[in-house]
Design goal:
The complex is a heterodimer of chains A (339) and B (482). With 339 residues, chain A is mainly alpha-helical. In chain A, 73% of the residues lie in helices and 1% in strands. The longest helix of chain A is centred in the N-terminal third of the chain and has 30 residues. Chain B has two domains: 237 residues, no CATH class; 160 residues, Cytochrome Bc1 Complex, Chain D, domain 2, CATH 1.10.760.
Chain lengths: 339, 482
């Protein structure tokens, strides 16, 4: 990552502006795509369109607008998800073209190509879910979606001018940097557990579901503890000078708080209030199927989870950009150019 | 990445391909084995084969031929509803939505309607097991089956304070408008199938000699006579069960004989509520009525206080088990309070036995709204006060209109029905009535009793009912639910 020399540094800073802009466009398209994808699961609309890549025999893009906008809600959501996915794919192609023209760093160009491969694979996975009518594939599709989002966020991060600036004070990379990676991985595992819960088969045993719920809750606690440790350590004197993580720190903490509340709301929206017999207001609560707020809360829980994954990844990338191992320190001292 | 993708497809594409089948009632087999003191493994397989022959599978259910042949049973359900409700969730190329039961119900009630869906263990109360044919909320006699309108009512308005959601939202869109009746008919199909299984296990196999075969499709070629005998036995059970359901289906003259329906037909009592009574009853009549109600509540005839406590909050010392739990515990010689006795049955589909405590009547949370379609009353004002009469515009303009209406307007009907008909499956009995029992309650005493029960929660009347996302949203804002 730190393969700059003095000669290509200025070119790297000035080049790639369009790559950065396209990468933002991609990330900003994928986030609503994640929301709509979550809504597909919330509404159990994965098979609302029985064919793929066509839509009811039409070319996907030629399916009459009136048929899906005024059609059943599940059809609208599923078809909308497909169209938005296509738009995201198109934007990633533009990103790759821009990278090949404007981006001087070869590894970034290949990162963009990797993003293209990931989004194509994600689309094919979604298609396979329909063709095979396989709920397990839907679950995997739901897990990999946020990873594609995270990859897009990584492209945004590494193409930013902040990343390319060479004015950073490098600090020693210790267990803290690895902890940021651990936090990212923990959020991914947590999302996978959540996806299992959301896509549970109706013939799964209650024991299995109960274990999943308990594991999801335990993992939530672990993520929270890890996040608190990472955020606390990053505030210590040793890491106080790290750039670009202060706002992110607050953001991650805020997202975790929102996520915990949304998790409680999701349980209530799906399975009723706890301690229903303790107060009139609780005992008279009735869940509504396909209620407006229910859908927002449940889908929001899943979408916020993907935002936490992305934030954890960007945090880790920024920390790693500003840390070096002891050997790298030694090397940089011995190879320092003499003016 | 592409390699990973291909690997993923290869590994997972077969995951959903296994044929889905209804789950056998293993707890009932266990109970019968204990009772008959013999291994019923072979008989269980014969029963499962018979049920598959008559009722099909969750992906391809069928209405038994014997019921198709007679037009008398056509109103119970139909093949079209079964096709819509069963199978995996999705839409056909003609845009018709299928798999409604798996979409809306199976996560809790299980694919067989056994109340053993994935979420079941975490819910309180547990999801209903349809296979006994016992349903709590119905207008008909104690011991009879619910009508399709009763089931529609429960599905539409849900059960407050439980995990059973209101599906009234589905009625708003023309695309989902017929989902609820279809689900109700499929619930009935699962219940009938479950009852047939139950009768075959509990009665039919008792009468068989050890060398007799209950049912085997292979006999169709090798021994047609034995096959016909087996089919006849099964059809007899199917007809018997279907006849029980027909009693509650559309036969309003039979429905009207239930104590609740008859009472509503005789009196205008159901039209008013406690507040209007307090204004309309002259002199001390209202207070006297409440005092009389209190005396009945605490006395030995109605004996409500025995379980609900004098203050109506429910005596926690008085615990009992519902019929579904007793079925495989007490009646099978298992002590529900002895963990060591019931724990080995977990692999058979057991959920930890949970006691049914008397309801806290001060909460004004009455589960199950009476179905107005079956009520033998013609007064439009009563109908108008009930949720099914919420106009289409009102329903579409106010998201939670029907459920709110339910909470406010039908408390008296719900109490009245619970008192007169009892709540089947729960320890709540029907009141002894003067018309049928010496020393039973007279109509005026029923009114006094209901007024008194209403008054128990009168102090909480001002608290609005929370519905759906409002509660979940409130929880999100307040961090509730922890």
């Amino acid at each position: 990552m730190s393969d700059y020399t003095a000669s290509n540094f200025s070119a790297a800073v000035s080049g790639g502006k369009w790559v950065h802009r396209w990468s933002w466009a991609v990330a900003l398209t994928i986030f609503p795509l994640i929301w709509v994808g979550g809504l597909v699961t919330t509404q159990d609309a994965g098979m609302a369109v029985p064919d793929w890549p066509g839509t009811y025999g039409y070319n996907m893009f030629a399916y009459p607008v009136s048929a899906w906008v005024y059609g059943p809600f599940d059809l609208m959501v599923e078809h909308g998800h497909r169209l938005l996915g296509s738009l995201a794919g198109f934007l990633v192609i533009c990103l790759c073209i821009a990278a090949w023209i404007d981006e001087p760093r070869r590894w970034v160009r290949w990162l963009c190509v990797g993003l293209l491969a990931a989004i194509v694979a994600q689309g094919l996975l979604g298609g396979a879910r329909v063709v095979f009518d396989a709920r397990t594939l839907a679950m995997i599709h739901g897990c990999t979606g946020p990873l594609v989002f995270a990859l897009a966020a990584a492209v945004v991060t590494v193409t930013s001018s902040w990343w390319k600036r060479d004015d950073k004070v490098l600090v020693s990379r210790g267990w803290f940097a690895w902890m940021t990676v651990g936090l990212f991985l923990a959020t991914v595992v947590q999302l996978a557990l959540g996806a299992q819960l959301r896509h549970i088969q109706p013939w799964a045993s209650p024991g299995f579901f109960t274990s999943l719920v308990h594991t999801h809750l335990t993992m939530a606690l672990l993520v929270l503890v890890m996040a608190i440790v990472v955020l606390a350590v990053s505030s210590t004197e040793q890491y106080r000078d790290l750039q670009g993580i202060r706002g992110l720190r607050l953001g991650i903490f805020g997202l975790l708080v929102v996520q915990i509340l949304l998790g409680c709301g999701t349980w209530i929206a799906n399975y009723a209030l706890p301690l229903a017999g303790s107060a009139p207001i609780l005992s008279r609560y009735t869940i509504e199927i396909q209620g407006y707020w229910e859908s927002w809360i449940v889908t929001g829980h899943q979408a916020t989870g993907s935002l936490i994954i992305v934030s954890a990844l960007v945090f880790a990338l920024r920390v790693w950009r500003q840390t070096k191992t002891t050997q790298q320190f030694d090397l940089s001292i011995s190879h320092r150019p003499t003016q | 990445m592409p390699c990973l993708f291909v690997l993923l497809l290869v590994v997972t594409s077969g995951c959903n391909q296994k044929p889905v089948d209804f789950v056998s009632n293993q707890l009932l087999s266990f109970r019968m084995e204990r009772e008959l003191r013999e291994d019923l493994g072979g008989r269980s397989i014969e029963v499962a084969n018979a049920l598959r022959f008559a009722f099909g599978t969750p992906d391809l259910p069928k209405w038994p031929d014997i019921l198709v042949e007679s037009s008398r049973y056509h109103s119970l359900t139909d093949q079209k509803s079964l096709a819509r409700a069963s199978g995996p969730v999705g839409r056909n190329f003609d845009l018709v939505e299928v798999g409604l039961f798996r979409k809306q119900c199976a996560q809790c009630h299980g694919i067989s309607g056994d109340g053993f869906g994935p979420t079941a263990a975490l819910l309180d109360p547990y999801p209903r097991d349809f296979r006994r044919g016992t349903f709590k909320f119905k207008n008909a006699f104690y011991g009879t089956r619910p009508s399709v309108e009763d089931l529609i009512q429960t599905i539409t308005f849900g059960v407050p304070g439980t995990s059973m959601p209101a599906m009234a939202n589905l009625k708003r869109s023309k695309h989902y408008a017929d989902d609820i009746p279809i689900l109700a008919r499929y619930v009935r199909f699962l219940a009938i199938r479950g009852e047939v299984e139950r009768e075959l296990m509990m009665d039919t196999i008792r009468d068989l000699d050890s060398e007799d075969v209950l049912f085997d499709t292979n006999l169709q070629e090798t021994s047609p006579e034995a096959f016909k005998n087996g089919l006849r036995r099964i059809n007899e059970v199917i007809i018997r069960v279907a006849d029980r359901w027909m009693l509650s289906d559309g036969l309003k003259e039979s429905q009207s004989q239930s104590p609740f329906n008859a009472f509503v037909a005789r009196h205008d009592f159901a039209k008013s509520d406690l507040n209007s009574d307090s204004k309309s009853m002259a002199g001390n009549l209202f207070q006297e009525s409440l005092e009389s109600g209190r005396a009945l509540f605490e006395g030995s005839i109605a004996a409500c206080a025995q379980c609900h406590g004098k203050d109506g909050t429910g005596d926690p010392k008085w615990k009992d088990y519902d019929e579904w739990t007793k079925d495989w515990t007490i009646r099978a010689g298992i002590n529900p309070m002895a963990r060591a006795e019931w724990k080995p049955l977990k692999q058979l589909g057991l959920l930890k036995p949970v006691a049914a405590f008397p309801r806290n009547l001060t909460l004004q949370a009455y589960r199950g709204i009476p179905t107005i379609d079956n009520l033998p009353i013609s007064d439009s004002s009563l109908h108008d006060s009930l949720p099914e009469k919420a106009s289409a515009e009102e329903t579409s303009s106010r998201e939670d209109a029907p459920v709110l209406k339910h909470a406010k307007s039908s408390s008296r009907l719900a109490i009245l029905r619970a008192v007169l008909n009892g709540i089947e499956g729960s320890p709540m009995p029907a009141a002894a009535l003067a018309a049928s029992t010496d020393g039973g309650l007279r109509d005026e005493q029923i009114m006094d009793l209901v007024r008194f029960v209403e008054s128990l929660s009168n102090s909480t009347n001002s608290a609005p009912a929370l519905t759906g996302g409002k509660a979940a949203g409130l929880a999100v804002l307040m961090g509730a639910g922890q």
